[in-house]
């Protein structure tokens, strides 16, 4: 099943989640502690999101910067996956190690850096369904 009809919807929902996370006092400082630039490359639909947790944020109230689309910033880690995999991952339904092994997610860069971020992002598994409900997309919330 395709969860997102096009890049605009992918950006609105996954990008919107990242916009929330970059200001979340529980999650963002732990991500920023990794001093990493991580880029997510999505297919079906296509989209690119880059989280810059290596440099000081440019927005007041944010712990890091998030960019949508192609940018010149070189990522430390690049994660490529179908947008549906990202949707399931942010619901806590995809095990990262299993997805890497099955090549559902293809990672370029130091895998240990990615794995160290997993405990930091676990609260997002609760934030994402809540965010979907808040923006009127309860139809995309996956059952527990």
Description:
With about 140 residues, this protein is α+β, with helices and mostly antiparallel strands. The protein has a single domain, classed as 2-Layer Sandwich (Nonspecific Lipid-transfer Protein, Chain A), CATH 3.30.1050.10. The chain has six helices and five strands. A hairpin with a 3-residue loop joins strand 1 (about 35-45) and strand 2. Helix 1 (about 5-20) crosses helix 6 (about 125-135). The radius of gyration is 14 Å and the shape is globular. The two termini are about 20 Å apart. The mean pLDDT is about 95. This is SCP2 domain-containing protein.
Gist of the model:
Helices cover about 40% and strands about 20% of the residues. The protein is of the alpha+beta class and about 140 residues long. The two termini are about 20 Å apart.
Feature tags:
144 residues; alpha+beta; Nonspecific Lipid-transfer Protein, Chain A; five-stranded mixed sheet; 39% helix
> What is the highest CATH level, the class?
Alpha Beta
Rounded to the nearest angstrom, the distance between the terminal CA atoms is 18 Å
Q: Which range does the strand content fall in?
A: 15-25%
Q: Tell me about the biggest sheet?
A: 5 strands, mixed
List the strand order in the largest sheet.
3-2-1-4-5
- The level of helicity is 25-40%
Shape: globular
Q: Could you tell me the radius of gyration in angstroms? A: 14 Å
Tally the helices: what do you get?
A: 6
**What order do the helices and strands follow?**
HHEEEEHHEHH
Helix/sheet category: alpha+beta
Domain module tally: 1
């Amino acid at each position: 099943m395709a969860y997102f009809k096009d890049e605009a919807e992918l950006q609105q929902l996954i990008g919107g989640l990242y916009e929330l996370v970059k200001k979340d006092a529980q999650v963002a400082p732990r991500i920023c502690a990794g001093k990493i630039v991580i880029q997510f490359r999505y297919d079906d639909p296509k989209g690119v999101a880059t989280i810059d947790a290596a440099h000081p944020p440019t927005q007041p109230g944010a712990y890091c910067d998030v960019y949508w689309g192609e940018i010149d910033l070189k990522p430390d880690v690049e994660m490529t996956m179908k947008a549906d995999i990202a949707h399931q991952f942010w619901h806590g339904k995809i095990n990262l190690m299993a997805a890497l092994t099955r090549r559902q997610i293809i990672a370029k860069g130091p895998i240990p850096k990615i794995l160290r971020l997993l405990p930091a992002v676990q609260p997002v598994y609760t934030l994402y369904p809540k965010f979907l409900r808040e923006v009127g997309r309860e139809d995309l919330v996956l059952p527990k």
